[in-house]
Amino acid sequence: MGDTAFIELNQIVKDFPGVKALKGVDFSVYPGEVHGLIGENGAGKSTIIKIMMGVHQKNSGSIKINGDEVIIDNIIQAGRLGLAAVYQDLNLAMDLSIGENFFIGNLPKKKSGLVNWKYVYEETEKTLKDLKIVIDPRKKISELSPAMQEMVAIAKTVHLNSKLVIFDEPTALLTNEEVEILFDIIKTLKKRNVAIVYISHRLEEIFDICDRVTIFKDGEWVDTTDVEEIDEDQLINKMVGRNITEMYNIGHQSPGDDVIRVKNLTREGNFQNISFDVKAGEIFGFFGLVGSGRTEIMRAIFGADKLTSGSIELNGKPYKPKSPIDGIKKGIGFLPEDRKEQGLALALSVKHNINLSSYKDINRFSFVDKKQENSRADKYIDKMSIKTPSRRQTVGNLSGGNQQKVVIGKWLCNDSNIFIFDEPTVGIDVGAKREIYKLMEELAAAGKAVILISSYLPEVMGLSDRMAVIYEGNLTAVLDRKDFSEERILKHASGIK
Amino acid sequence: MKKLINKFKEGKIAEGNLILILIAIIILLAIFSPKFLTANNIKNLVRQTSIIGVVAIGMTFVIISGGIDLSVGSILGVASIISSMLMVSGLPIFLAIIVAMVVCTLLGVINGIIVYDGKVPPFIATLGMMTAARGIVMLISNARMIAGLPRTFSNFAQITILGMPSLFFVWLLVIIATFIVTSQTVIGRNLFAFGSNPEAARLSGINIRTLTYFIYGISGFMCAIAGILMTSRLSNGIPTAGTGYELDAIAAAVVGGASLSGGSGTIIGTVLGALLIAIIRNGGNLLGINPFILQISVGVLIVVSVMIDQRRKASV
Amino acid sequence: MKKLINKFKEGKIAEGNLILILIAIIILLAIFSPKFLTANNIKNLVRQTSIIGVVAIGMTFVIISGGIDLSVGSILGVASIISSMLMVSGLPIFLAIIVAMVVCTLLGVINGIIVYDGKVPPFIATLGMMTAARGIVMLISNARMIAGLPRTFSNFAQITILGMPSLFFVWLLVIIATFIVTSQTVIGRNLFAFGSNPEAARLSGINIRTLTYFIYGISGFMCAIAGILMTSRLSNGIPTAGTGYELDAIAAAVVGGASLSGGSGTIIGTVLGALLIAIIRNGGNLLGINPFILQISVGVLIVVSVMIDQRRKASV
Amino acid sequence: AAGQQEAAGPAGEKPYEIAVIIKATDSDFWQYLLVGALNYEVENPDLVNVTTYGPPSEADIAQQVTILEDVISTNPDGIVIASTSSDATVPALEMAYDKGIAIITVDNKVNTDKVHSFLATDNLVGGAMAAEKMVEYMKAEGIALKGKVGIVSAMAGIQVLTDRDGGFTARLNELAPDVEVLEPRYIDNDIVKALSATEDLITTYGDELIGIFADNNHSADGAARAIGEQKLQNKIILTGYDSDPEEVAAIKAGVLRAIMVQDPYGMGYKGVDSAVKVIEGGSLPEFVNTGVVAVTKENVNDSDVQGVLDPYSMKKY
Ligand SMILES: Nc1ncnc2c1ncn2[C@@H]1O[C@H](COP(=O)(O)OP(=O)(O)OP(=O)(O)O)[C@@H](O)[C@H]1O
Ligand SMILES: Nc1ncnc2c1ncn2[C@@H]1O[C@H](COP(=O)(O)OP(=O)(O)OP(=O)(O)O)[C@@H](O)[C@H]1O
Ligand SMILES: [Mg+2]
Ligand SMILES: [Mg+2]
């Protein structure tokens, strides 16, 4: 760590229409340090890095680089100053090739002025290979799994040879293996005396990789400290203002009757011969590596995708879904993994989104019963403790965790009895995570069946009564809680017999 | 009332900006042309706006859903020719109108089928329908006007009720009905959800197939109403009726605040948008502005009013 | 070559479907009309397609970027009137062409400014320009054709080189140049990145302001070329020149595989799309099909070819 | 009806293939021309085989050139064309002429000598006649020749319309120098827009407005309706152009005072006939005036104008 900070931000204020995102925060990073930045959803983490990167303009405050005051009013300039970032939302051009995305905004030219494609593809291939990723860079990036896409984005940013590299929640989509690669990358950067900002909601990562950590709360700076001088409980306390111990400690029910029975389910190209059953009052985990086909299985059960063969029984009756309408009628609620693309109408109000699946029940001659609409919205805003100024707030303006709660509220509102949660806590802060876990507990206690898909092993292990493990579209094991062990699960998940 | 004014000030009424722009233009015109605020001119104005106003309302449904309907003008032509040919052939007026409405609604539904089941982008699906439907109109009418409509039918558009033209009341009825549908019914809620995020709407159990049929069907139905009004007003079935109306209708909806990417738009906004464009044209005519300069001004004003709207939205 | 065929079979060539459809139609027409595959008719065909083909290429840039340009027809009219008025007034042909090109490119850039800086949706921005530019054309030409062009200028469009019309070579030049720009230059690739994900493009440091100006400027420039070609071909400056071309150009690009939501589209696809539409019309004329039935067929075929394309894409 | 069969007999053998190309398919006027042409075919089935073509709109000049080129590719024996532009079709027509195809132009003169005959009305004269009729009726109604006269024009930038408006304005200026002729209002050939434009003219100029000239059938339909609705036919003298059923009704009702009717039927019929004569080696005059008739309430019921008013009544197929 050097003596002067590479970048130093003082009293930064940022207002968005209706929201004070940053209320005068300080933040500095030294060369060769990995600086963790944590806080609840909506605390202002992404906002401050976007100010550093010239994406947003601060309302007041100052930025110094190597001790000199600078004005960063666009991204190009930030790049010149040696700043680079991997943003939270995957910002890739899905219609383009991997190589092109690797060099987006920075394409190399030949002497003739034309794009040097040879260099583009060779360099991409080489750089990715160094990171143990072997793929054809001429492929369209949309053909990659989200995890691989994230790795491309990371590799691309690192390749820029910047003096400060910012990672905004890089691990949300990654498997253990890729997280290892990422940490190796960060260590290499550190050796090169690069300053690094690391944002994550997985606190153990902060302890694994960071030297110092800064905590934000509601747009205000709370503390900056050496990681060695703080423990996880203290960190959480500073972050959410209360103690959360034993994240995964929830009550477990004695299971009831089979609610859902699945036999030999097959969807060509996605999964084969999947059979399992889920009982009332049970939390049934689904673990597998990213891309193993869990989402597809659940989508097919919900009715969103077509099945090739196999049968499903719900409460003892045969069930053949043709569209989500059938699944919903039978009381299935599905929380999709991508809430922005599949779960929410972002431009509409909280109220509208909560009621989205229930309008069929709250109308008279197809006229919406507005009293019920409002009272249901209020009920679930309250029940889920959704942080929103009013039920009329546009969902797009809520923070990630609160958006997730709105989607859950939608299915509660629809009186579902089978809940499928697909990666429910991706990008969610610890406080909100805990609330979602408590909610699953409540659902199970009320006799509902809960299916939990997660790529985050501690979470599935901690919450599930039983767990199915999927490897490349095949069910490799169904384990009871007493048989859960990390080693065993990972073995099944990677196809080792 | 006070609440309303406050809401207005806070920019919470979506159509707020537009109302201000409209008022400003009305005041300007009233100052420069003493004829502008006469009863007669107002009557003319609403009469001139009613027909395109009805089309624009159907268009608003399509635009809220994230689609576009280029076939409105041609379907309007279908309504005009079919209803008048049937009347002339002796069918009772009432039946002729019903048949035209059914046919046009079906043409709209066919648009919906091409879009949903054929997965053809709305722009192309309705562009094809625009070309094909106009061809059909020309073919069955031999590109000729249809004359000899029953007197009672052609008189309808001439009637005034309480001093206002009958066309205005039809438009008003359409406005009220669609206002209720978009703001009070399940279909309205689903329409916005679908336009805002089709995949989320589907996964929430909304039947987006029938919804798509419904949306384009409504647009076709509105074209039928507009076509029948126009036929009554002109006492003739006109094969070229409605040519170019698609752009006017889209402009009205978008000036009224609808977004072509779907999920937003209001009936009242569209009504104001249609009025704004009509008032500019009417005012320009009253002031005796050179028609080409007027045309230029209309173009500029459409852009400027959308620009002002965007600015004010961003600053709230 | 074998590699190419394999790629083709695997559906990896974006324009594959279109080529198949095109070949099928050509075979059908060749069977039914012996005149279709004559040298003379082929010459006519390319001549007829060249002008709209150039406009469609400019449109392709805009569509790839996720925008739309409704003003192409009017800007084409501007080129026609300005270049012919200047020539008639005695300016050297060369200079007249340059002036027309500069003016039209500027009009395009103004579209870009309204879209980027004014944050007005492209549909509205260019709709305004469409109306305003046509007004300007009418105003400066007094809505009259401009006759009396220099012979050397009007002769240009009649010349054939190596048996092919000169217009074809201009089109070919434009195709080659834009093919290189879109596939081999940084600005071309930035265009795709921007259309595919504007936010990602911005965050990657692409200057999307100048890119937007460039895109609409190119479209304006292409309209200038097309307008000048048309003026030469028609030996007149025509104030109504290009009316309705926006829809033909969009149809060509979309039939050619461009998506109106941006990020995809190819120059070759657009060329094939323009040819497909032109061939249908040409074939209809050769077969002496009733013009209304021909109109209906064109509408249906545009929709069907896009539908087939979607199906095949989905099945790959 | 029209010759859809594909193969024509070898050149020189009957029936002759005659292609008729109109300016636009979207109006009664051009449909009337086709009736004339097709009637000729019906009357002489062994002599000619008529095929008809046309672009959807008169604004689309390039499309008409395209059609002409396509038609020439099919090698007909004769072409009858109403060319929208006087220059644009020249190269194609000259080529066809050189190939030995009989070329008959109608309605609009084309700037080349390589045409066998030209049949048309003079639109300048027709416009002037409309002015004369207007003045005549103003005098009859006792309206002082002072004030303003409006023009409702179907479309900007179309040559024949510009001629009509120009002929009208020039003649009216001669006959009534104290009357101001206003800038034309353009209506995109849309009757509803014609109606609105006329309403706005009436609102704007009130009593000052003493006459309106509408330069085609759609503009006259709309103008007549506006004037009729407000019962101003005795204060505002309306004269129009062309003929369609609505105009005829307006004439009979006294709202529209006069329409200048050309003979599109004759252009079609005589056009095909001329082509046949050329093919068979006859010689023809360079120009045939097909004439324009002013139809008013006085002569609207005369039997000899019925044919020009509604050629559809003469349709034989
Ligand atoms: N473009 C914007 N317009 C309006 N409000 C915004 C905008 N971007 C962020 N905000 C608001 O600013 C606040 C801070 O958001 P920010 O994205 O910085 O949070 P974060 O700490 O990154 O949260 P998360 O952990 O969920 O990513 C939130 O209340 C958010 O709703
Ligand atoms: N849009 C897509 N295009 C092509 N292949 C896809 C697409 N989406 C998923 N796949 C592939 O389908 C398979 C199953 O993916 P799926 O998303 O169901 O996995 P998952 O186990 O749910 O993992 P995740 O944690 O990503 O949700 C994988 O091989 C994946 O790469
Ligand atoms: Mg964030
Ligand atoms: Mg998944």
UniProtKB/TrEMBL annotation, chain A:
InterPro entries: AAA+_ATPase (IPR003593), ABC_carbohydrate_import_ATPase (IPR050107), ABC_transporter-like_ATP-bd (IPR003439), ABC_transporter-like_CS (IPR017871), P-loop_NTPase (IPR027417). Keywords: ATP-binding, Cell membrane, Membrane, Nucleotide-binding, Repeat, Sugar transport, Translocase, Transport. It is a peripheral membrane protein. GO terms for cellular component: plasma membrane. GO terms for molecular function: ATP binding; ATP hydrolysis activity. Residues 7-243, 254-497 form the ABC transporter domain. Gene3D superfamilies: P-loop containing nucleotide triphosphate hydrolases. It is found in: Cell membrane. It comes from the Bacteria. This is Sugar ABC transporter ATP-binding protein. It comes from Candidatus Thalassospirochaeta sargassi.
UniProtKB/TrEMBL annotation, chains B, C:
Keywords: Cell membrane, Membrane, Transmembrane, Transmembrane helix. GO terms for molecular function: transmembrane transporter activity. GO terms for cellular component: plasma membrane. The keyword Cell inner membrane does not apply. It holds the Pfam family BPD_transp_2. It comes from the Bacteria. It is found in: Cell membrane. The chain crosses the membrane at residues 12-32, 52-79, 91-114, 120-140, 161-181, 213-230, 250-280, 286-308. It is a multi-pass membrane protein. This is ABC transporter permease. It comes from Candidatus Thalassospirochaeta sargassi.
